[in-house]
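Feature request disguised as a bug report, sorry. It would help if multi-protein outputs had a clear separator. Right now it looks like this:
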Amino acid sequence: MSEPVRLALANGAVLLLREDHANPSIAFRGSVRAGGAYGALGVAEFAARLLLRGTRTRTAAQVSDAVENVGAALGAANGVESAAIDGRCTRETLKTTLTILTECLAGPSFPAAEVEKVRGEILGDLRAQQDDTRRAAMRRLLELVYPSGHPYRRDPKGDERTAAGVPRRDVKAFHEAHYGAAGLVVAFSGDVGEATFRSTVAAAFEELDGGRAPAPVPVARAPRTGSALVPMPHKSQADFVAGRIAPSRSHPDYYAVNLANVLFGRIGLYGRLGTQVRDNLGLAYYSYSGLESRHAAGHWYVSAGVNPKNLAKAVAAIRAEMERLGAEPFADTEVADGKEHLVGSLQVTLERNAEYAAALHDIEYYGLGNDFLDRYPGIVRGLDPNVVRRKAVEYFDPDACSWVASGPVKGVDLAF
């Protein structure tokens, strides 16, 4: 697998390319450090949603029509650390598509009417989220896991109060402060040659102002524990989550913890957790684990949706599976299967241009090195099974986790 082409522009933007002429399409994925961690609560959400809704020279409808007229696609979305951009086009429409994208990045106009439309969308999303037992439980868990004031503990969309009050001037100021080329990463995969990449693509992004380099998100190291019930008496399902702070993407423990997580609650029928709690005991509609690792920290969690009458039994079963990792650690065959799953799933993912562009973006975003895709199979296959087993016991310790249940749970006595 050849290394991608990497261009570091003078204004701070980094562009990456993987050529693939097997089909006449180009996919790209990018980000700018302008997520919810960098501004007042909710403002970044408005900025990202409004990015493609009008510029100094085009209305929202004209931006949409211009993209549609060339058969391209553009999108923007807010996240905890970054605002993501993505799209697709062809070699023939590449220049036009990038002209529209960079115009939106450099000069969104934030029309008042569009601001109010977005406000309504965000408020609708927040209300739907509050009525979703799984999302309500996870939101409360992050408030327990991360330290007070840390940006990872809050929803980037904010809450109904903040969304209702965000003024246009704050959105405009946030864009001016955080949407410069410094910290911008855009990766391309598809039917574009290196010469075009170094000329047409680079020229489009060279026009962006550099801005200031993004400040690092504060590190969250100290684990916090707690428990909470989120009463939603009108719901028929209860959801349960437990979790704790986990390694950042660059932490030395990341690869071992990631493999342990795959074995515990992801592979096959959701690993040991899904096999025991859902399939063998029949205590959950679903049960799985997840690992979210970012620049400053991450969090590991287990999640289950259950019939409220089975909630206590399901919680006990999940805790038992976590405790069993010490008494019955992962077998060598489990670890070997998990390694091949991780290597093979990445290879399958890289068969598609959009996913390949996303992988290239993440490699640059987390500073993993331009040759990472060549090194990755060796990194995974070289993990010591004993280290994987130890890290599972260390990070999946139920006593180090916070525990949350949502749904018709008022008055429920749970032994968290």
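(second protein starts here, but nothing in the output says so)
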Amino acid sequence: MNRIGTVVRGIRTGVIKEGDNLKDIVVNSVIEASKEDNFELSDRDVVAVTEAVVGISQGNYVTVDEIALDVKNKFNTNHIGIVYPILSRNRFAVLLSAFARSMDKITMLLSYPSDEVGNDIMDKDKLRKSGIPMNNYVISESEYEELFGDFKHVFTGVNMVDFYRDLAKKENCEIEFIFSNNPETILDYTKDVLCADIHTREYTKSIIKEKGGNVVLGLDDILNASVNGSGFNPTYGLLGSNRSTEERVKLFPSHCQELVESIQEEFKNRTGKTIEVMVYGDGAFKDPVGKIWELADPVVSPGYTKGLEGSPNEIKLKYISDNKFADLKGEELNEAIKKEIKEKESNLKGTIITQGTTPRRYTDLIGSLCDLTSGSGDKGTPVVLVQNYFKNYAD
């Protein structure tokens, strides 16, 4: 039996800057790593590249002023409502500076007790004891300050209401906070609305439009085209962006499909192997302590080669062993299970033998694996090599 299953390696590339040839850097780094660590590449190995270095190498940046200009032009007003932004100093704070720079007043509607990705904005135990219902209720800014004003996030130690208020004030913009889990609440304050949520954005926009919104846009509608020669993302706009400096934002990368296919072709030319390639951002997993759902990007993977389409079609070994082959042991059991795997149906969805093998998409599974491997700190491994992922017990 081959004892080695999935193997994951973080690949160091050196620091990548704007204008660098990312295709050559990725291929060279993986091949050099294989020589250094004495391993071979195989067909269906996966090479994943973090979206951060893709955006950096593309030079896909915008400034706070360019964002402010786009917002001003698209809303043509001095007062907008912002609905359901995530509570993030890296993701949303610099965008808020731009929005405040373009407006005289912002009314910000926040969901409670947490934002879309699980960041708490208040003490849940206090909320329960207060008797405030989760729906059909609006918490005013003064009520929030009285009941929850001392709340600080468990990881950052920051009260994000205070943090966002200070950012707006620095831009000489009046800001008012309200808290409601009904998005149409914003229409009691303004009809011009920027929906800042990520995965629920289409629903939020449609509800606000149906209830009488005037100009209703999402973050994906801002910087979806260039402003005075700036970077842009035609599909996601400001979604997936994060802070570069206090006055500049790196956008989620575009043209990822061309990149992954060119990297795959280069690997084929240099190694003879068909390597699957993907660009990955945030993984789709939830932290058990902070209750934060990691996925602040609009998708886990904005570009991947065809071999990564689809979802696993797996049987639960434990279930088969405990039920169908309960009387077998040792090599007889091993061979029976291998035979079961080899003869399994091509689509096992809904069958009892798949229980506990949630068929998430390959790109979401592998992207999460890669995000946990590379992290977002100082490991210096923006490329991840995953081997044996598509091999099973019977191979």
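Even a blank line would do. Unrelated, but nice: The radius of gyration is 24 Å.
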